[in-house]
Amino acid sequence: MMADKKQQRLRRARQTRARIAQQGVVRLAVHRSNAHIYASVISGDGARVLASASTLEKDVRAELASGGSVAAAAVIGRRIAEKARAAGVERVAFDRSGFAFHGRVKALAEAAREAGLQF
């Protein structure tokens, strides 16, 4: 029997996370819902969150009309890059959590790259 879309996405996410864990590098994990987008920089051992940003933050919500847009994803990409660099992280592995590298996930990644994060 065929797995549903969520099960397929979670399978892809597990495969990616296994590869990243094997390398032991810091990862930039992204999650998106219909209404919001979230990004976290997680330590190489997976034990600590070094930086996080989302469209639920009060100052981000004030400047955005919608948390589920490409523009919102770009803002979060810039914010997470700034916070990661402040925490001393320059280089990360991009964990898209099984989501397609398209639309909001792509906008977040490109904005983080432009703000100085390397992956």
Labels describing this entry:
single chain; about 120 residues; globular
Can you describe what's shown?
- The protein has four helices and four strands, in the order αβββααβα.
- It has one domain: Nucleotidyltransferase, domain 5, CATH 3.30.420.100.
- The chain starts with a helix and ends in a 5-residue tail after the last helix.
- A four-stranded mixed β-sheet has the order 3-2-1-4.
- The mean pLDDT is 95.
- The protein has 119 residues and is α+β, with helices and mostly antiparallel strands.
- The chain has helices at 5-23, 58-63, 70-86, 104-114, and strands spanning 27-32, 37-42, 49-54, 93-95.
- The protein is globular, with a radius of gyration of 14 Å.
Secondary structure topology:
Blueprint: H1 5-23, E1 27-32, E2 37-42, E3 49-54, H2 58-63, H3 70-86, E4 93-95, H4 104-114
Parallel strand pairs: 1-4
Antiparallel strand pairs: 1-2, 2-3
Short summary:
Helix content is 45%, strand content 18%. The protein is of the alpha+beta class and 119 residues long. A hairpin with a 6-residue loop joins strand 2 and strand 3.
The level 1 CATH classification is Alpha Beta
| Protein structure class | alpha+beta
Radius of gyration: 14 Å
Question: Which CATH architecture is right?
Answer: 2-Layer Sandwich
Global geometry: globular
* Main pleated-sheet profile: 4 strands, mixed
**CATH fold-level assignment:** Nucleotidyltransferase, domain 5
SSE succession: HEEEHHEH
